[in-house]
């Protein structure tokens, strides 16, 4: 077979038609014993071979599914809930997973006030999670939404309560706890520099252990509900306001600050309802720390130009990699976009879509509602997706490689041209494309050796011979995506019809 392939896969280089590869999930996970509107996938977290998925609507009270990766596949390994829980508790609204502890938010519990909210702690003992207490707001208020968002790093836990009344109704507050011995101790309470009506300070929170970022989606400094993000730094004894961030092009109801993440000297802010270039398209703003101040480095947006994409609904930042959820993408099916920083700019390399986005229910699935990244493993929630049970929700697993490969079309007719596109390479750096498998059997043939173009991309157009009809061909790209890192792309499988 090899001489035939080598002789007939004639390659031509062209400019790529699209800026990113489109890839489907490795796995789609459903709630065990799921039911309509369980909201499985409301939040997700992954660390190593353990993942947790929140389903705040399960049985009206909420639950968290524990998953384990065995031989490359994720399988159910347990289910957490609260004994004596009440309808409307929303246990599983948020989840945070560390090496030794799992935090689960339940925004509807009545800890000291009606629907004030709480956070449950589970300590990891071997392969099990053992209940270790319930954390309530130190100053609970009715419908304060303690736990609406939370983030954790090392011994730090940051909890948002955006509907807490602080001077003004719905002004919001954030509570910072630190683990001291076996206990979580309140370290500091944060409020907006100027608490205002319905500013919802604490709608989103993020921390890397040294800084805390707080989103305030109802902040009106730029425009009505344009939003803001406030950065706090640890000075050795307390958290002090370091900077206040606003979108220079913010507009009414942009909700800048609805999604946040921070990693060292970089932070990202989502504004999922931003109206440029189209209504509700959404945007993500990237900031860098320079001389003690945060300055805008980039503004990222969807390239499709459709209304209500909600690009920036969720964000996940890990060094040079940035994942962005767009729950309204593809007519509400949702999608996830991966960018990587090539040393000069953020380049879009992946677009993840569900293989069967509208299967199993009439509601829009909302893929990208939440994101969790660990290494190359990316979990994305779609709390209204269907499956065995209509609209019970799902969690999708993707492979987050930095170098991406795409095929167009997915299935090609023998005798026609197949386009193979690489994305995310380092401009001018060496790269190669290989055939790595045929119909499930290992097979290796280098098809092209060359270099990435100035945009870090290359496109190949082989003519697929009719003699290969009925076979499945696996392709893989390799090359440098930054000066120090040689990487490989996702594997693309194409069926010859």
UniProtKB/TrEMBL annotation:
Record has Secreted as a keyword: no
Signal sequence extent: 1-21
Keyword Zinc-finger (UniProt): no
Keywords (A to Z) from UniProt: Glycoprotein, Repeat, Signal
InterPro entries, per the entry: FG-GAP, Int_alpha_beta-p, Integrin_alpha_N
Protein name according to UniProt: FG-GAP repeat protein
């Amino acid at each position: 077979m090899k001489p035939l392939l080598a002789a007939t896969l004639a390659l031509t280089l062209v400019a790529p038609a699209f800026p990113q590869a489109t890839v489907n999930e490795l796995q789609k996970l459903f709630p065990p014993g799921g039911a309509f509107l369980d909201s499985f996938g409301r939040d997700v977290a992954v660390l190593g071979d353990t993942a947790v998925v929140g389903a705040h609507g399960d049985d009206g009270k909420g639950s968290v599914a524990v998953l384990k990766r065995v031989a490359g596949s994720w399988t159910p390994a347990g289910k957490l809930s609260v004994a004596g829980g009440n309808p409307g508790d929303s246990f599983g609204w948020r989840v945070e997973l560390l090496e030794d502890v799992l935090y689960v938010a339940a925004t509807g519990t009545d800890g000291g006030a009606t629907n004030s909210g709480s956070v449950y702690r589970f300590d990891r003992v071997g392969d099990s999670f053992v209940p270790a207490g319930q954390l309530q707001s130190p100053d609970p208020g009715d419908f304060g939404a303690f736990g609406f968002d939370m983030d954790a790093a090392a011994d730090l836990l940051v909890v948002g309560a955006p509907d807490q009344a602080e001077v003004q109704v719905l002004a919001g507050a954030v509570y910072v706890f630190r683990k001291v011995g076996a206990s979580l101790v309140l370290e500091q309470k944060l409020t907006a520099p100027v608490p205002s009506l319905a500013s919802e300070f604490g709608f989103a929170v993020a921390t890397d252990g040294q800084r805390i970022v707080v989103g305030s989606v109802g902040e009106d400094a730029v425009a009505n509900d344009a939003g803001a993000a406030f950065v706090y730094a640890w000075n050795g004894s307390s958290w002090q306001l370091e900077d206040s961030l606003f979108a220079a092009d913010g507009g009414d109801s942009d909700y800048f600050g609805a999604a946040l993440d921070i990693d060292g000297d970089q932070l990202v802010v989502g504004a999922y309802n931003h109206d440029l270039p189209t209504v509700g398209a959404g945007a993500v703003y990237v900031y860098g720390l320079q001389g003690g101040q945060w300055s805008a480095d980039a503004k990222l947006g969807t390239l499709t130009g459709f209304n209500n994409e909600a690009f920036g609904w969720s964000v996940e930042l890990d060094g040079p990699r940035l994942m962005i959820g767009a729950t309204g993408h593809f007519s509400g099916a949702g999608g996830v976009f991966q960018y990587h920083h090539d040393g000069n700019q953020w380049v879009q390399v992946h677009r993840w879509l569900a293989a069967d986005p509208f299967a199993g229910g009439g509601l829009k699935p909302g893929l990208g509602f939440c994101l969790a990244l660990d290494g190359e493993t990316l979990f994305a929630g779609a709390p209204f997706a269907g499956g065995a049970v209509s609209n019970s929700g799902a969690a999708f697993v993707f492979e987050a490689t930095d170098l991406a490969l795409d095929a167009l079309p997915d299935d090609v007719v023998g005798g026609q041209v197949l386009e193979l596109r690489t994305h995310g390479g380092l401009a001018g750096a060496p790269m190669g494309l290989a055939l790595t498998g045929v119909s499930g059997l290992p097979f290796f043939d280098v098809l092209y050796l060359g270099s990435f173009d100035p945009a870090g991309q290359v496109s190949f157009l082989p003519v697929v011979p009719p003699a290969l009809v009925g076979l499945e061909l696996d392709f893989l790209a390799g090359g440098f995506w930054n000066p120090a890192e040689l990487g490989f792309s996702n594997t693309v499988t194409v069926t010859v019809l």
